[in-house]
Amino acid sequence: LLVTSYTAVAFIAGIATGTCGVFVWNRWLRRIRTADWVTPDILTRRRWVKGIVTSVGDADNFRLYHTPGIGWGLFRTVPTLAKDLKDQTIHVRIAGVDAPEVGGGHFGRPSQPHAEESLFWLKNRLEGRLVYCQLIRKDQYGRVVAVPLVPRPFLPSFLGKRWASPLALEMLRAGTVTTYRQAGAEYGPWGRETFLRIEAKARTTRQGMWKYGCVGETPAEYKRR
């Protein structure tokens, strides 16, 4: 009877350990390879992920190589070749902002004024950097709309997200984007009014695209046209 009891306890403990292991793997260690791997449950929980930005396509989106767990840069490496990155990155659309459209892309037209400058700013800020992203929803192009935070220099990694800099607000201050005002827009914990206030200050101080005081056509107007 005693042996049977020990066997039952060991069996139950084994199941519990296995279940816990699966949960830990799925929650913290399993790598999200692409936007298709982002499940409705992940979006419902607005899960935070961290990763390395491998490329910037337009001035309001980028590719993120998810790096869960520990050991990255030591015994785990992020690929650098395009062939190795194929189907291995999450296409992230930055929530709450809208950048001047770069030529080609979805519309097949010439670039908007200041589009190249905005793209250069984002490339310089993000490529090769660690970024934290809160995943919110998917858009009509299959990208994941997210709130990105950029860790501040010289902080230990465990403080990275807590004291990181909100990327969207940085972009608004630099005058590289406008506030995204369409239905369903997301602004993170700061809210729409904060976005509009920072954009207005950039316009007043003539930052980035506002250097001449106004823009001929906003990104939203360009896309509607």
Automatic annotation (TrEMBL):
What the entry lists under SUPFAM superfamilies is as follows:
Staphylococcal nuclease
- Main localization, broad class: membrane
One GO cellular component from the entry?
A: membrane
Keywords of the record, alphabetical order, are: Calcium, Endonuclease, Hydrolase, Membrane, Nuclease, Transmembrane, Transmembrane helix
Gene Ontology MF, one:
hydrolase activity
Q: Where does the TNase-like domain start and stop, copy by copy? A: 47-212
Concerning InterPro entries, the annotation shows: SNase_OB-fold_sf, Staphylococal_nuclease_OB-fold
Any Pfam family the entry gives: SNase
Where are its TM segments located? 6-25
Q: How does it sit in the membrane?
A: Single-pass membrane protein
Q: Does the keyword Membrane apply?
A: yes
Q: Which family does it belong to?
A: Belongs to the LCL3 family.
For this entry, the protein name equals: TNase-like domain-containing protein
- Give the organism, scientific name: Pisolithus microcarpus 441
